[in-house]
Amino acid sequence: MQQSSNLRHGGRIVIEQLKIHGCERVFLVPGESFLAVLDGLVDVPQIETVVCRQEGGAAIMAEAYGKLTGKPGICMVTRGPGATNASAGVHIAQQDSTPMILIIGQVSRQMIDREAFQEVDFRKMFEPLAKWVGQIDQVERIPEYLSHAYHIATSGRPGPVVLALPEDVQSSLAEVEDGKTYVNVEARTAPEDVAAFRSMLAAAAKPLVIVGGSPWTRTTTDNLIRFAERNKVAIATSFRCQDYIPNTHPNYVGDVGIGIDPKLAEMVSESDLIALIGSRMGEITSSGYTLLKSPCPEQKLIHVYPSPDELGRVYRPDLAINASQPSFIAALAKMEPISNIDNSARIATEHANYINFSTPLDTPGDVKMAQVINQLCDALPEEAIITNGAGNYAAFLHRFYQYRSYRTQLAPTSGSMGYGLPAAISAKLQYPERDVVCVAGDGCFMMHGQEFATAVQYGANIITLIVNNGMFGTIRMHQERNYPTRISGTNLRNPDFAAYARAFGGYGETVTRTEDFLGAFERARNSRQPAIIELKVDPEALTPLRTLSQVRAG
């Protein structure tokens, strides 16, 4: 019997919906539980398929795509172990407010609740990790579920959506009408909110604006700069949102994150008005909820956030505004400027404090990470993208690298190790013309080091700097602080990382002296291959300010 032109199996319908919603690329590890979806990709070449080596890496690549574009990153994995591996990326997307959709092949409907092979109740599993979890039990409803997933992932505070798709639903044939492209639902700014904000700002002698979160755009950064300049306001960024304003801008006073500049912490304390725009002021940004008194800060507090759930959650604001960052900051850029108070001198002093804090200092060993990061910054154009995961090495990057353009920092606010390499691959695939550098610790890199093979396979010519000190440095720091000299579970025996790169078909080099870094970096750049530069650092150089021995001594 000749099939109707609109009769398709469920897997093809899924892919057609992704195409309609603007999907450019899917990141996946194949599995027999979503063979029909894989088959659907064959006939839709407009969607690039990126085959990864582990589901956690695939999920991180999708999350990084969401950060870069503001559109949901799409990840596809198999049931059971595939889904559990991908859960790390879902957690990152949740804590980082990143739009993402994870599609999981599920056991057939007749197998459910029998503990079938690799069966997991994904609603129960992902409920605390995702913004919404659904399972598509009727092939005819696939367009509806995909539309809902896109709207949920991108609306309000963005986040991850998980969709389970039973095998028999994928393989079933149906005639269904396709959905329409999702509509971006945004919490808009009311004129009275801007008026109230302006009134409080005009009454403040020492205001400070802290920006962060998602959604955000390059235009939002431009509007933020215009607002700051016209109203002479100091701007700080929340944890790992340092690229939201050029760090070279005279109104920028630093990042409120791990290892905060003590003078910036003092500025927060002395301010009479704190305006949080998009930031949750979570544990890291608040220095363990100590920078602001909870629940009622001593400073006047304005909190602007795209979802009402966060307003008043930890800190009781004097003015709560439910609006997206792009909408609210666009309104601030058009607001009549305030001229009764001139904070220029205070801002100049605080910006100078930031410059002084970010000036490289000496650390033990022949490879000095502060100088390496400073050289890296000088060598790269302002549009270069820098990625990292978690570890003490990142303190050097955050402190000594100057982010000069929006969306050049990709890092997990969730503190997830292993993020940097998959994120860098995703960034290079999205922007092949831009320099992309991953900075990773030795322990951090090995979490998803196998994805270097993905970089080689797809010609994602990233450069990865591996900071090798032979240990899990952050845990060792806490260990030495709490149980001095009693070392347990933190030492690492590492491979030759340069040889590791060459084994996969990339470029590899080892650096043992600071003065050799730039030459190695240029050779890696000119190799036009995915590259690894191993930096042999002294374990004593634990943080920018304190050596391992000093931490141990207390």
Write the layout of secondary structure elements.
Elements: E1 7-9, H1 10-20, E2 25-28, H2 35-42, E3 48-51, H3 55-69, E4 73-77, H4 81-95, E5 100-106, H5 122-126, E6 132-135, H6 142-154, E7 160-166, H7 167-171, E8 173-175, H8 191-202, E9 207-211, H9 218-231, E10 234-238, E11 252-256, H10 262-270, E12 273-277, E13 300-305, E14 319-322, H11 325-334, H12 344-357, H13 369-379, E15 385-388, H14 393-400, E16 409-410, H15 420-430, E17 436-441, H16 442-447, H17 452-457, E18 463-468, H18 473-482, H19 497-504, E19 507-511, H20 517-526, E20 531-536, H21 548-553
Parallel strand pairs: 2-3, 2-4, 4-5, 5-7, 6-7, 9-10, 9-12, 10-11, 12-13, 13-14, 15-16, 15-17, 17-18, 18-20, 19-20
Antiparallel strand pairs: 1-8
